[in-house]
Write a structure and sequence with these properties.
- With about 300 residues, this protein is an alpha+beta fold.
- It is about 20% helix and about 30% strand.
- It is built from six helices and 17 strands.
- Strands 7, 8, 9, 10, 11, 14, 15, 16 and 17 form a nine-stranded mixed sheet that branches. A four-stranded antiparallel sheet has the order 1-6-3-4. A two-stranded antiparallel sheet has the order 2-5.
- Helix 1 packs across helix 2.
- It is globular and about 65 Å long.
- The N and C termini lie far apart (about 60 Å).
């Protein structure tokens, strides 16, 4: 069975549809997207388009991926740190080095592999067989809480809250430098890097609005321990935003300051709090993931180094 993907263009547009889709789905090459367009698998308002069509704000794009693009995902008995679970949703405390769903180079050991085993296949199917139950993601080396939906009704409800930016998402991070202000807001659009499509960047054209609120929790000499609250949820948002103001995350080898210190594996970033309106009860549900051991050890080391 083919998989359908749907995108609504939010930014001003003006770029070719093949480029737009390859930026939205970096796992697909631009040449493969062009083949899908040629095969009339890319539609706007139900009509096939050509590769040179330029998207406009408000365009609703429907993409039909052939079934061959969806490998069978194996259920695996993985150790999952379950923070909360009921018939509709499950909150997982994701560890470092775990990818959320299968992708190139990560066919096994992902959160989805473990969820298929734990939930016995009872996961929403809206995002296809590769992303069952998945409504949002956190990076491989970011730890913390992620919500997964067990049925389509729950998935639609949570996806709507994500789109409306009404979900509570608070992160803890350690950044380079000593921030001048005690708190602040970064309101800067994020899109694909103009020359490196595997990276994101603050952009003046073609990006999506991104808003991050931050506040200082503790000053640690050359570093600052902060809390970030997301108003939007763009790819690599906190990492890109903090780097854009000169305070990249400690351990971030993509947006940071070269090789990591303190033998860190990736950025010092933890998704600590996630709050949603429960899809069945209609009541606010907030789940917290405690700071992981590596983060606590790092804080202790920085405090000792600064005589705290």
């Amino acid at each position: 069975m083919e998989q359908k993907r749907r995108f609504e263009v939010e930014e001003p547009g003006g770029i070719r549809i093949d480029r737009y889709l390859s930026e939205q789905m970096p796992e697909l090459s631009r040449s493969y997207v062009q083949k899908l367009i040629k095969d009339k698998r890319v539609l706007i308002s139900g009509n096939p388009v050509k590769a040179n069509y330029k998207v406009a704000a408000g365009d609703v794009i429907e993409l039909k991926l052939p079934s061959a693009a969806e490998p069978e995902i194996q259920a695996e008995d993985l150790l999952l740190d379950i923070l909360y679970e009921d018939a509709d949703v499950i909150f997982i405390n994701k560890p470092k080095d775990m990818v959320v769903h299968p992708s190139a180079g990560h066919a096994t050991g992902t959160l989805v592999n473990g969820l298929l085993y734990h939930c016995q296949g009872e996961l929403s199917g809206i995002n296809g067989v590769i992303r069952p139950g998945i409504v949002h993601r956190i990076d491989k080396d970011t730890t913390g809480v992620i919500i997964v939906c067990k049925n389509d009704q729950a998935h639609n409800q949570i996806a709507r809250q994500l789109k409306e930016h009404s979900i509570t998402r608070r992160y803890r991070a350690i950044v380079w430098g000593n921030l001048k202000e005690e708190e602040g807001t970064i309101d800067a659009a994020i899109g694909r890097h103009p020359t490196d499509r595997k990276r994101m960047a603050v952009v003046s054209k073609g990006g999506k609005r991104a808003v991050t609120h931050y506040r200082v929790l503790e000053r640690l000499g050359r570093f600052t321990y902060i809390e970030c609250q997301l108003e939007t949820g763009r790819t690599h948002q906190i990492r890109v935003h903090m780097a854009s103001i000169g305070h990249p995350l400690l351990g971030d080898e993509i947006y940071g300051r070269g090789k990591s210190l303190f033998s860190l594996q990736g950025q010092a970033l933890h998704a600590m709090v996630l709050g949603v309106i429960h899809p069945s009860t209609g009541k606010y549900l907030e789940v917290e993931a405690p700071l992981p051991e590596y983060f606590l050890e790092l804080l202790g080391k920085l405090r000792r180094n600064n005589g705290i």
